[in-house]
Amino acid sequence: MSDDRRFMELALALGRRGQGRTWPNPAVGAVVVKDGIIVGRGWTQSGGRPHAEPVALRQAGEAARGGTLYVTLEPCSHFGKSPPCADAVIAAGVARVVSAIEDPNPEVGGQGHARLRAAGISVDVGLCSDEAAHDHAGHFLRVRESRPFVVLKLAVSADGKIAAAGRKPITISGEAAKARMHLLRAQSDAILIGIGTALADDPLLTCRLPGMEKRSPVRVVLDRALRLSNDSRLVHSARQTPLWIMTSDLSEAHAEMKLSAAGAHVMRLPTGREPGLDLRAVVHTLSGHGITRLMVEGGAKVASAFIKANLVDEFWLVRGSQVVGDDGLPALESQTLDIISASPNWRIRSAEELGNDTLTIYGRL
Prior knowledge:
Elements: H1 3-16, E1 29-34, E2 37-43, H2 52-60, E3 68-71, H3 85-91, E4 96-99, H4 111-118, E5 122-125, H5 129-135, H6 137-145, E6 149-156, E7 161-163, H7 175-186, E8 190-194, H8 195-201, E9 218-222, H9 233-236, E10 243-248, H10 253-261, E11 265-269, H11 279-288, E12 293-296, H12 300-308, E13 314-319, E14 329-330, H13 338-341, E15 346-354, E16 357-364
Parallel strand pairs: 3-4, 4-5, 6-12, 6-13, 8-9, 8-12, 9-10, 10-11
Antiparallel strand pairs: 1-2, 1-3, 7-14, 13-16, 15-16
């Protein structure tokens, strides 16, 4: 492995530390190297500032002069809530920048690289671009399509069920798989369920990994008629962990007032011709509020709806060893898991054993 690739892979790993915490900004990683020695490292901090580059450059100090900066996304060139990162790179005296990928944001879009080159800095673009494109997919989709990167997670029995007969809840996955799913929550900006799951399970939807409790995502509930009770655990915890409720513009104002008074943020969407909420309007609204990475953890109805709407970018399938039987509740409403697992439009990105369970991650081609 070349030194350039090794340092860029470190920058990518650093950037992933910020996933779920930097929205609406991308989670970027940066490494400063001088004479083959790492002298600075950084990643985008909570809330999106400061950016990765000034964090790494500040750590490097004078050692950055004449060194190389490895960064997972083109340094910004415009004034936002912080000065341009390209200017910080120039001021630090860096001799070379290795950038994984160009930023599609029209306020940047190659201008950061151009500014660096104009200052006499050598710029190489494209190393580990596929990995960077995946890591920054939420940022790219928000810029290009005004929607977040959507991960659909399902935990199913060995025979593809998510509940026993009569929708009776069952334990499907073990502790190792549950811990992995809580890590996925921590790496997501928001987690979404439907009102059916909210009423049936009364979940909290927080990250409960030791030491990571503060990394819980925004909780989003699709609740067309505002049926969520103020006595639910979601509403009771709304002042500690943000709760956004997506509803129809025809739902009762009194119900909205009660939920809002408890700390929930109610968002009204136009009523369409189809029953339920328009999922494209849902994801566009979430994107408009800064969400770049959305985890969908709803039941069979919500999962099927996101697949039918062609809004799933990555599918995480946890399969347990238990057999439920033919009278169990299928994982998808009016569809089978083959719609993804056997589709030529999807490929397996990775597969691993988690205790007695198997996690398979499918990516869209």
